[in-house]
Specification:
Helix content: 40-55%
Shape: rod-shaped
Distance between the termini: 86 Å
Number of helices: 4
Oligomer: single chain
């Protein structure tokens, strides 16, 4: 790969690949500071606003886990998803995180019964009697 000789702002010489925008040598390069944006999750006692968050809240309330840390994280992720402004890949990643948070929040919770479960329970009671 072709390169050119450059001098950084402190006077040190270095080789820079063609097409690169580097202006510092390896020794003088300032540290890279990467800071992620801070996201505030304000769940509190507010009623759920979006349809996704509302259904998540009802799902958690059915098993009594709407106030647990995992439940609040699940609701916060739903609120963040509905806030919008995400690229396609960000929405895909956030969707995966929402599903993980849902599994964690509902882990070990009693599953609500359905018609088949009710029929099975009646049959078991009748056999015991």
């Amino acid at each position: 790969m072709a390169s050119e000789r450059r001098v950084d702002p402190k006077g040190h010489r270095f080789s820079r690949p063609l097409g690169s925008r580097r202006i510092w040598c390896e020794k003088c390069r300032p540290p890279v500071v990467k800071s992620a944006p801070v996201v505030q999750l304000d769940i509190g006692d507010q009623p759920a606003r979006s349809p996704l968050e509302q259904s998540a809240f009802l799902e958690l309330a059915a098993v009594g886990r709407q106030d647990t840390p995992r439940g609040l994280l699940y609701l916060g992720l739903c609120r963040q998803f509905e806030a919008g402004g995400h690229t396609g890949s960000q929405m895909a990643a956030l969707s995966a995180r929402i599903l993980e948070a849902q599994r964690a929040a509902l882990e070990g919770a009693p599953r609500p019964g359905d018609v088949v479960d009710d029929l099975q329970a009646r049959r078991n009671r009748a056999r015991r009697a």
